[in-house]
Amino acid sequence: MILWRHIGLFSSSLAFLKSDFTDWDCRRVDSKLVLWNTLREVAVAEADAAESALFTVPNLVSTASDFETSPEAIETLFSECPLGTIFLLEIALGSCMLNRGQYSFEPCEATGKRLMEFMFQRNVSIAVLLTTVWPIKQAFDMEFVYEFGTDTASQWHTFQNDPFHKCAGMSAGSKEWELLQDLIWTAVRSEHMVFAKVRDFIFHEDIQDLVTDQLEQPQSFVPECFLGWVATLLIKASVTWHMESFVYFSYEQVLKGYLADLTFWEFFGSTWLLSVLLGQVCVMHRTINEMDFWGSELLKDPHINSIGSLRLKASPIFSATAAAVLGEGARAYRVNGESRLLTYAVYVWGEAFLKWLPAYIKRFHSLAVYNLMVFGDTATYQVCSAIQRAVCLQLDTKNSLHRYTIPLALMNLGVDAFILDFDIYPFQDPTPVLISELESYSVMPEFLISGSFGDACICNALAFYRSTPSLRDFIRGLLDWLYEHPFPHAVSQRALSAFLGESPIKKRQSTGPFFVKAERLAPWLPDRARPGIAWAVLDPGVQFSSSANLETSGWAGDAEDIVIYHFFYGAWLDAEVAMAIDVKDREMFDIFYNTSCGKEPQVCEDRRNQRIRKHLVANRRGDVRNHTERACFSLPYSSVDLEPVPKTGLGKLSRA
Ligand SMILES: *[C@@H]1O[C@H](CO)[C@@H](O)[C@H](O)[C@H]1NC(C)=O
Ligand SMILES: *[C@@H]1O[C@H](CO)[C@@H](O)[C@H](O)[C@H]1NC(C)=O
Ligand SMILES: *[C@@H]1O[C@H](CO)[C@@H](O)[C@H](O)[C@H]1NC(C)=O
């Protein structure tokens, strides 16, 4: 694994000041030139149908050619909608190359240059570029240009056979570069993921040494084979994209500089197939920029004069949340002499989970916890609404950012929020425990987070947010970072951990706080909002503990002391990681929430309690959780077989 030596890239904003999220989809752009929403919808539909290359679709080509020749118009479009403009330029370039490229690509050169500039020299991150709903990756699909080189009379032939770019016969290492190029070609021709074919090359010791050199001495590192090196880094980025954010961002940082230096034909036309490799960096991930809540509702404190005026100017979900706060969704509680409002909230969607939702809600009700807000899509809403006294909110976007949008919306409405994952089981009413926790610190915590049993890491299955200006500011910064860095694999927890750092506050009477190690997120982090927030970890030993599914999870002590138990349903992980996770028991929901086993209700209840007891015994790790300073568990990536199945319309390698 590569260690990044410090690079001084800290921004120094004192507080979070943005009032809306970047409109990458261009849903709210008011343009006189292009109907961005319509263009995006047509583009997405064409890409999904994938009947022909996008730059042969007449509608798209004619829109692109309307602007292509006017630099001013293009610049205006870019300022309105960067990704839409990049997409249009790809269409313009593709259709130009198809028509004229082989013998004379000069007419396409200006467009290609513009495209390269917008993609790689402006402020669009690689991850945004590759995960957006705009089918930018699909429009890269110009494999025919690689075939131009086979015609010895064409200009491409000259370029593609330039020994310098091919890195042929120039040094002792040439053979290796030629081999890599062959492997890439073979993989692309046979429509395989490139990574599987080049694994041995990519993980070779010599290559790892070079990468280390580069990351440690970026100034003095000069690659022997420039385009081959860019190809290598792209492949490495694609491996780590699925596994390890810190290493991925290290590569991305280096790649950004290299990509900004490439000419369009080096990128689209060289025998290193760089545009194909870039398209494979993240095959299975599409960013959802829609959050139902409006950016302004999350990023700013609302000014509520009356709920009536709020309703007029709010998104449906924000109004519904506000109404729920005024109704049964929030409950008053007293902490340190202050009366405040408290809500428990969960978001859930998907058939596998919905069948357990009634029992989940009823379990809270049986503990006299009615201030539980259930957020979810239409199906969730229907199941939830059938339960008496349930508080149900329809939140249609299946966006993992809801982990932070929901507490932020609630905090903005002046409510403290305890956000729960769905794969948990409450053994007792958490509120009294929460109050005594909050009161046991000399400074009242703004944020409480569950922790991991066997290492010194946080776990965001359970998190309590006290609505304070500094916590709202902190979560806004975190949410915006996640929005701008659409990276898969549980990065929402990793980012939280990295943003929080390693200094939880101390209880009044305690030998020391729970020891915390921060996860590695990226080689650079935005400066956190100051002053930092007061946060602490909920007892990971027994009160807020977990099943022993992972090497580092489990619980210890007396089962009577468990407040909320996290039983780790593996599919949550699967959804975020591009590979199979070995989770032993997928029947957890059945153990905890199956209240209808077809026998007498009491027999069923006895059976359920018995199974829960048995489960707890099997997952108990001892009498007491040992102190640990072990760093956070992260998935090993060099040994993983990464051959995901591309989804329809994504990651297609060549025209059928
Ligand atoms: C892009 O970044 C530059 C330099 O950091 C900055 O000056 C500029 O305002 C940014 N542009 C946009 C559109 O964010
Ligand atoms: C609960 O258990 C019974 C008996 O094992 C089973 O038939 C039923 O499908 C389970 N309920 C759910 C919701 O899976
Ligand atoms: C705590 O550490 C002791 C000594 O290393 C070990 O025997 C015991 O199993 C540990 N307990 C737990 C709960 O891990």
From TrEMBL:
Query: Keywords of this protein's UniProt record, alphabetized?
Result: Signal
Q: Where is the signal peptide?
A: 1-19
Instruction: Tell me yes or no: is Signal among this UniProt entry's keywords.
Output: yes
What protein name does the entry list?
A: Nucleotide-diphospho-sugar transferase domain-containing protein
Organism of origin: Symbiodinium necroappetens
